[in-house]
Amino acid sequence: MPAQVYLDYQSSKPVDPRVVDAMRPWFTESFGNPSSLHLDGDEATDTLERSRERVAQFIGANKDEVIFTSGATESNNLAMIGYATRNRRRGDHIVVAESEHISIHNIAKALEKQGFKVSKVGVDQYGRVSVEKLRKKINDATILVSIGWASSEIGTVQPMPEIADALQGRGIALHTDAVAAEGLVPIDVRKVHVDLLTLSANDIYGPKGLGALYIRRNVNIAPVMPGGGQERGLRSGTENMPAIVGMAAAADIMTSEMPAEALRLMQYRDRLIAGVLGRIPKSHLNGHPRERLPNNAHFRFEAIEGESLLLSLKDKGVAASTGSACSSKTLEPSHTLISCGLLHEEAHGSLEFTFGRWSRPTDVDRVIEVLPGIVERLRSLSPLYAKETKA
Amino acid sequence: MKSTNYSEKTLDHFRNPRNVGTLEGLDVAVGKVGNPICGDLMYIYIRVSDDRIADIKFQTFGCGSAVATSSMTTELVKGMTLDEAMKVTRNDVADALEGLPPIKMHCSNLAADALHDAIKAWREGRRGETPESPKVGEVPSSCGLPVTKPPAIDGAEALLGKGVYRRVEDPKAFVEKRVLVVDRGKPSVDVALELTKHTGRVVFMSSTKEPSSKDDLRAPLKRSDVKVIYESEPIAVLGEGEVEKVRVHDLNENEEYELFVDAVVILEQAPVLP
Questions:
Q1: Residue of B107, B160, B235, B238 with catalytic role
Q2: CATH number assigned to the domain covering A17-253
């Protein structure tokens, strides 16, 4: 699959060829609209409902608890705005984790404009929410807590079972954006009592442009987009059948291959972490040392800047990612890194590697081979490093 | 346009930067621009002979265009008279690089400013200095002057005992915590060093400029795991019922930013700092 050393699976994944095969007939031969009452329509309805069941099984849910959306961003909007507006009479207070991806923070801001109050629960230096701190943020008006299952950026996995237990029986819904975690750590809504859970198809090697939202039975949300009333009236618009079929195929493959795949990626991750920290002075691991995604290695290097690192890696045929401001659209460094207690100048020196289905052991070798020299060269240009070594 | 959509010329100067390094001597002046907080910091050193730039070197921390513009600036102005070099603008540098992505025009195209700063330093007679040393007449009034009592930090009183400490009696209370130690002289330096035995994250914040002398009482911090920030002061401690973060004023850039911490140590003593 990827020709270069591609270690940016958190940004985008190739669609598994087996998934493409499953999708292909749905562009041409099978093109029915599930709302139609003829044979083509019936075939589409059957496939839609079977696909829904397979995606539901992937997270231990019932098939009537899953609806399809256009992706994780829409699922997050529908979960948070849909739940908050529908349950407003019960309270107007929402809690999100400080470390969340900007998209969650921006949804929270939109809710604030509608008059909701938003609290942010801080995280520790590894990006983890503590249940104790979360309890302190909750009050009688709290109706919704949103905490991502894991960070796509620093790889820290949240203590979701403990968080869910702490909220049980208090009339507070728990939403989790699980896109970073899906396919890498087990997710079972029978074991962890979340009320709303966001999935995306591409994060399990399905197509882009499709997501799903798990909505626990008896949890009520309002639609955010009026229309023809598809997906139980919660998500109008003709169903994206090829993508839905693709997501179901991707979920099946992931269910059977995840245990071995996660172990394999974890070996790459651990070898990369040991290799980088062992060879490069003044390098650090961001995120939790143990409670982290099996495919994520996130570093920071003192006195250099992330975009320079990415450009240099690109020249060596390696694709990675950074939380530096210089690579962001807003020119602000990653808020996830800042929420862990890093200074801006430290966040600028961050570098993220994420492994995936087509990663090979030689990818790790290549990074360990080229990265020390790149860091050394950029430090030789940097006034910050000259100062530190002089001291 | 993507922020890293660089021209081949820009990439060439990033990959093979010209004139990297430092210069020393009484015929050398140095200019500085930027700040690591913003993600860019540049030093440009000029050696002047007969009112011309006889030699020029740079050091840069920053993104691809920060490195490339520094390199291109040094190449453009080498051999120019100081008057000619003063006329070289950011746009000239960007043009010489066959253009920069629009988003980079302001944030990372600062090398011309550093050059002008160096020429200004030369003309004002500030020669043979190292960039670390404070520039005469530019020391902010709060920097390096005797402090008689700690300046008030908003919210510190309210969160006393809830993450704000006036003294450190039991360092074990700081295990695994992110601690900010505010500069209160030698005792605060000792506290910061002691705390590194108990937690991996200690930030020491001082409103003074970075001292150039190795005899400075803060010097031991440089050799430790303590992260030291100069020219910054906490203006507020924030949190609901416990310390969550500190609002910091960066005196150099006159900007504010937030630092997430679990504990803040503001010692009662406020000795006179040299």
A1: B107
A2: 3.40.640.10
Report which of residues A1 and A359 the model is more confident about.
Answer: A359
Whether B244 contacts chain A with CB within 8 A: yes
DSSP state of B20: B
Contact (Cβ atoms closer than 8 angstroms) between residue B121 and residue B128:
no
Are A136 and B241 within 8 A, CB to CB? yes
Q: Are B39 and A338 an interchain contact pair (Cβ–Cβ within 8 Å)?
A: no
Q: Where are the domains of chain B?
A: 8-123, 164-265
Question: Topology of B164-265 in CATH?
Answer: FAD/NAD(P)-binding domain (3.50.50)
User: Is residue A79 exposed (0-12), middle (13-18) or buried (19+ Cβ within 10 Å)?
Assistant: buried
B62/A308 touch (CB, cutoff 8 Å), yes or no: yes
Q: Do domains B8-123 and B164-265 have the same CATH topology?
A: no
Which residue intervals of chain A bear CATH 3.90.1150.10?
A: 5-10+258-390
| Helix boundaries (H) for chain B | 8-15, 64-77, 82-86, 90-96, 104-107, 111-123, 186-195, 219-222
CATH T-level assignment (fold) for domain B8-123: Sufe protein. Chain: A (3.90.1010)
Interval A322-342: pLDDT, tens: 877 666 666 678 899 999 999
> Chain B contacts of A324, Cβ < 8 Å?
39, 63
Measured between CA atoms, the residue of chain A closest to residue B44 is: A383
Tokens of A313: 């890696």
The pLDDT value recorded for residue B103 is: 80
- The answer to whether the Cβ–Cβ distance between A315 and B15 falls below 8 Å is yes
User: Does the model's ipTM exceed the 0.90 cut?
Assistant: no
Would residue B38 show up in a list of annotated catalytic residues for this protein? yes
Nearest to B259 among A123, A343, A383 (CB): A343
Residue of A nearest to B45 (CA): A383
Which chain B residues contact residue A306 at CB under 8 A?
A: 63
- Provide the token pair at A107: 């949804």
Nearest to B85 by CA among B119, B45, B123: B119
**Beta-carbon contacts below 8 Å between A and B:** 116
Topology of the domain covering A5-10+258-390: Aspartate Aminotransferase, domain 1 (3.90.1150)
Q: Tens of pLDDT along A250-265?
A: 999 999 999 999 999 9
- Asked if the C-beta of B57 comes within 8 angstroms of chain A's C-beta atoms, the answer is no
Pairwise CA distance, residues B57 & A213, whole Å = 57
Q: Does B4 touch chain A (CB under 8 A)?
A: yes
Residue B221: per-residue pLDDT: 86
Query: Are A351 and A374 in contact, with CB atoms under 8 Å apart?
Result: no
Residue of B nearest to A349 (CA): B39
Query: Which of these is catalytic: B11, B20, B38, B259?
Result: B38
B67–A303 CB contact, under 8 Å: no
In the prediction, which pLDDT does B211 show?
Answer: 75
Measured between beta carbons, the chain A residues lying within 8 angstroms of B242 are: 136
Please name which of A102, A140, A146, A141 lies closest in space to residue A120, comparing C-alpha atoms: A146
Please tell me the distance in Å from B89's CA to the nearest CA on chain A: 22
Q: Please answer yes or no on whether B244 and A122 come within 8 Å at the CB atom.
A: yes
